[in-house]
Amino acid sequence: MEKEYNNSLSVYVHVPFCMSKCPYCAFYSRVATDDDISLYLEALSREIEWWSSFFPKGRIGAKTLYIGGGTPTLFSAYQWERLISILDHRLDLSLGCEISVEANPGSITKEHLRLWNDWGLTRVSLGVQSLHNDELKWLGRAHDSDTARKALTQIKDAGFDLSADLLFGLSGQSMRKWYDSLSGVLQYGVDHLSLYQLMLESGTPWGERPPEGVFNGYPHYRFAQWYLSHKGLDQYEVASFSRQGKWCRHNIAYWYQKNVLALGPSAWGYFNGVRYWNHKNFSDYLIATESEEGATAGFECLEEEKKIREAVILATRTKWGVSLNNFYNKFNRKILDSILSELSEIPKDLFSKEELRVALSAKGMRVGNAIWERIV
Ligand code: SF4
To answer: Which of 44, 253, 279, 296 has CB atoms 3.0–4.6 Å from 258's, for a disulfide?
Structure first.
């Protein structure tokens, strides 16, 4: 699997706007005015122009493009036309580029779907979170279950690959209710699911003042692994399930440390062992894109051992895990052997039984964090 991404470039575009701010969300986003969106689009245009000067003929060949946020569907059709023209101007998407976009049920429209179809977009990832109104209300989401169902239908009817995000560990979320949300989205023909435990992260309102009722959803996660495998969705990463071949290639690029050009405020990118990050604050980002240094606020050159440890942790998030042949070809054998010997002290049933490959079993994925803490 890793070989396919050699010498490729993935592009991530962060849209930093939302209709309102969810109390648990740690992503950088803010409530926007139309002026903010215009300023953002012009800054993004400057940022991509800046980067393009480092590429032959000013064209950036993209194997995957992911537009996330934030809420990209907050943009009107006109604003989306502008975004597409900015990206088309400097990105070469002609190499079978996988294009994914995040959408929210309350703001996606027929115009979005029409524009994306004309553009050749691959996948729409819908932030469903739950199909129960009480859970959506508790989460502070702007949509209800009917709106989510309508959006799922519209996206599928428009012919896109369909992905849905769901959350578990929510107050009052019985196993029955979790099953309703899982089976509910499957009825709409999703090809891909991302499942997340609700986290209370510091710096968010709920991280500071946790609401009552959040719980460790380990049994819910375990149930989803069992249920989805019986419904033809393969777990290909700790939080990701898909039908055969419908994996998100963009995310696989992150898990195998491929080069990622990241654009937009707070975005993080990676080039040949160097990680960089953009200015997070919106005004700082706007100003930085006018400077000769571009939007980058800082960078870190990963030292060899850290890079290898990170590579093992990221790869073992996926079902393909660490291919020993590839990793020995790519990395320092002595360091890799020492990391693998640390892993060998972990119970065998947490790993799949494959020769020349180190990958977690379904049980191992359930306790992945504890495993990675041992080798970080
Ligand atoms: S809509 Fe998504 S990105 Fe926006 S605040 Fe809510 S969780 Fe965060």
So the answer is: 253
Tell me if the pTM is above 0.70: yes
Pick from 15, 24, 25, 143 the residue to mutate for probing ligand 1's pocket: most ligand atoms within 8 Å of its CB.
25
What residue ranges line ligand 1, CB within 6 angstroms?
18, 21-22, 25, 27, 29, 69-71, 104, 127
Fold observed for domain 304-375? Arc Repressor Mutant, subunit A (1.10.10)
Instruction: Report d(CA 59, CA 223) in Å as an integer.
Output: 46
Q: Where in the sequence of the chain do the CATH 1.10.10 domains occur? A: 304-375
Write out pLDDT tens, residues 202-222. 999 999 999 999 999 999 999
- Which of 376, 346, 375 lies closest to 363 in space, CA to CA? 346
- The list of the chain residues with pLDDT below 70 reads 1-8
Model pLDDT for residues 156-208, shown as the tens digit of each residue:
999 999 999 999 999 999 999 999 999 999 999 999 999 999 999 999 999 99
Question: Which pLDDT score is estimated for 95?
Answer: 82
Which amino acid is located at 89 in the chain? H
CA of 32 to the centre of ligand 1 (A): 13
DSSP H/E element including 270:
strand 268-271
Looking up tokens 């279950």, which residue turns up?
A: 145
- C-alpha distances in angstroms, 115 versus 42, 76, 83, 121, 263? 20, 11, 11, 9, 21
> Could you name the CATH architecture of 8-255?
Alpha-Beta Barrel (3.20)
- Residue intervals of the chain classified under CATH 3.20.20.70 are 8-255
